[in-house]
Design a protein that fits this description.
Layout: H1 2-12, H2 20-37, H3 47-62, E1 67-73, H4 79-87, E2 105-108, H5 113-122, E3 129-131, E4 147-151, H6 160-170, E5 175-180, H7 188-194, E6 205-209, H8 220-233, E7 241-243, H9 253-265, H10 268-288, H11 299-313, H12 315-334, H13 337-344, H14 349-352, H15 381-399, H16 406-415, H17 421-430, H18 441-472, E8 482-483, E9 486-487, H19 488-559
Parallel strand pairs: 1-4, 1-5, 2-3, 5-6, 6-7
Antiparallel strand pairs: 2-4, 8-9
Helix pairs in contact: 2-3, 2-10, 2-19, 3-10, 10-19, 11-15, 11-19, 12-13, 12-19, 15-16, 15-19, 16-19, 17-19, 18-19
């Protein structure tokens, strides 16, 4: 028996100390994890982490000089008698009627004022708080100054409120002393519902076999060994196991010595919170998975998205309209002046789409026109389907391999702004510089040349009409100069007409080539504009989720105990 108790004492010393700064770093990492996953994971999966951050911050802010120890046990285990024996005062009611303890009682070693705020947070009513200060034995109790001992309700009480109170308090105390008795130490409820759940809190867990005086001396080692076997099965190997007897003056020496060491070390609160972090991190680990990095959206899928956006935004239609507008405007600047008026009767292709004309080159339209929604044709069902497929492909490939609900978060992010996408695409098309804001120099040169040959033809025609008019009224005919055998007026008329036709024929292929270049240039600019919209409305939200995933993984690694 002496060897067993000696090993228990050695295990309870807690030689491995918890560094307060390291604990704060781990708690901050959990807080960063919560910030990273906010809005991406269901709140129901994050409740333990939020509770930990709130409780840990409050507990550390209240008092580091007090150690809250709870006596927990089933009905009839004698924990209230043990509580009174440790306090050496009759504080918690003891009786044959069970359950006796319905609310938590607290005994504070040292001034009560220093522990009141802590007990307010724990939730012990003022009338159930007691102070263990006595002039007669004050020196004997000095080693326990800073101890706040709680006598909890019975966890197996028939009253549900008692069970809930026990569960609440077990989440707040620094150290738990589980009190079992020789009759019910193997009870399934305490092992499966409580002890087994505390395997990550071995550093702040003690098990005592109370009422050991009821066992024959030869039976005590066998019962202790069997209880140790059960604790090992509960993954509580190494947890201190002590035998106590509240009625025996020496039956509490080992437990009292263990409590004195705990109070002196001031480590219980840090060990408890470190265990809490371990529990929370283990639960969060499955939300992030072993591979805590994300490659990002696939570039091939992104390019397919850009093509689908271009089709939905009507980029081919607008680009074709740019080519037609170039030919329309070039013809209006380089055709015969007499034909230009006929061209003005035809609407400008860009004007039909309500696209901007910064230079006001189309003089049949107002010089200034406010930017409004375009008249680009609505996307077809096939184009809408292609866009939906492209968005889904980006999300699926970006979320591939992510654990838990992260793929759903990626998909939700990719689709989060689809309702705003049509207006954004329309604004992008309307705000794109289509390269039609200036008249090329060669238009002016050809247009001036057309005016010259037209004026020559008009001059020749007027000359000839004048000659015919003079002859018609009997006046002497004009002496027209000759160019070879051709009169000069005839040469001006026919030469001007032929020259204008020749300039038009030579210019037309140049206009088609230049219109093709303008179309291609506009298509590139429009595609770049809608690609920016795709980045902002689809790809960027996906990257944000993936960045949050990576940040959450990094935070979880920092929160893991090394």
């Amino acid at each position: 028996m002496t060897d067993i108790v000696g090993r228990m004492r050695q295990a309870f010393r807690g030689d491995q100390r918890v560094d307060a700064d390291e604990l704060l770093t781990r708690l901050d990492a959990v807080r960063r994890f919560l910030t990273a996953v906010d809005g991406h994971l269901p709140d129901s999966q994050l409740v333990p982490a939020h509770t930990l951050v709130e409780r840990a911050g409050t507990r550390l802010a209240l008092s580091r000089d007090h150690t809250v120890v709870a006596l927990a046990g089933s009905t009839g285990s004698g924990k209230s008698s043990l509580f009174n024996a440790l306090a050496r005062m009759s504080l918690s009611p003891v009786g044959v009627r069970r359950p006796t303890t319905g609310v938590a009682h607290a005994c504070v070693w040292g001034p009560l004022d220093g522990a009141n705020r802590l007990l307010d947070w724990v939730g012990v009513l003022p009338r159930h708080r007691f102070v263990r200060e006595s002039v007669l034995d004050g020196d004997d109790e000095s080693d326990l100054h800073g101890l706040v001992l709680l006598d909890l309700p019975d966890f197996d009480s028939v009253q549900r409120s008692h069970q809930l109170e026990v569960d609440r308090l077990l989440g707040l105390v620094d150290l738990v002393v589980w009190v079992v008795d020789p009759q019910k130490y193997a009870d399934r409820v305490i092992h499966t519902s409580y002890l087994r759940e505390f395997h990550r809190h071995k550093d702040v867990t003690v098990v005592v076999l109370n009422q050991a005086d009821r066992l024959p001396p030869t039976e005590l080692p066998r019962v202790m060994a069997d209880l140790r076997r059960l604790l090992d099965t509960d993954r509580l190997d190494g947890v201190p196991l002590l035998a106590t007897a509240a009625v025996d003056p020496g039956g509490l020496d080992d437990l009292r010595a263990a409590l004195e060491r705990t109070v002196a070390e001031r480590q219980a609160v840090l060990r408890r919170l470190a265990g809490d972090v371990d529990v929370v991190v283990a639960g969060l680990d499955e939300l992030v998975g072993p591979d805590r990095s994300a490659a990002g959206p696939d570039e091939t899928a992104v390019r397919a998205l850009h093509r689908a956006l271009a089709g939905t935004a009507g980029v081919p239609v607008v680009a074709e309209a740019v080519g037609q507008a170039y030919r329309h405007r070039a013809g209006g600047a380089t055709d015969w002046p007499l034909v230009r008026g006929w061209r003005r009767l035809r609407p400008d292709p860009l004007r039909r789409l309500h696209l901007p004309d910064p230079a006001g080159t189309d003089t049949d339209a107002p010089a200034e026109k406010p930017l409004a929604a375009t008249s680009v044709p609505d996307p077809t069902a096939a184009q809408r389907s292609a866009l939906g497929l492209a968005v889904r492909t980006v999300a699926d490939q970006a979320g591939e391999g992510l654990p838990g609900t992260w793929p759903a978060a990626v998909t939700s992010a990719a689709r989060s702004r689809l309702a705003d996408l049509p207006d954004a695409l329309d604004r992008a098309v309307a705000g794109t510089d289509l390269g039609m804001d200036s008249r090329p120099l060669w238009w002016r040169v050809v247009g001036g040349l057309q005016w010259l040959v037209t004026l020559a033809a008009v001059a020749g025609l007027g000359w000839l009409v004048l000659g015919y008019g003079l002859r018609a009224i009997g006046l002497p005919p004009l002496d027209n100069p000759q160019v070879g055998a051709v009169p000069l007026p005839t040469l001006l008329l026919l030469g001007g007409l032929l020259a204008g036709l020749l300039v038009a024929v030579v210019t037309r292929p140049v206009v088609r080539w230049a219109a093709g270049r303008a179309r291609h240039r506009a298509e590139q600019r429009l595609t770049a504009a809608v690609a920016e919209v795709g980045e902002e409305y689809v790809v960027s939200p996906v990257r944000t989720v993936l960045a949050s995933y990576a940040e959450a993984g990094a935070a979880l690694r920092a929160a893991t105990r090394r």
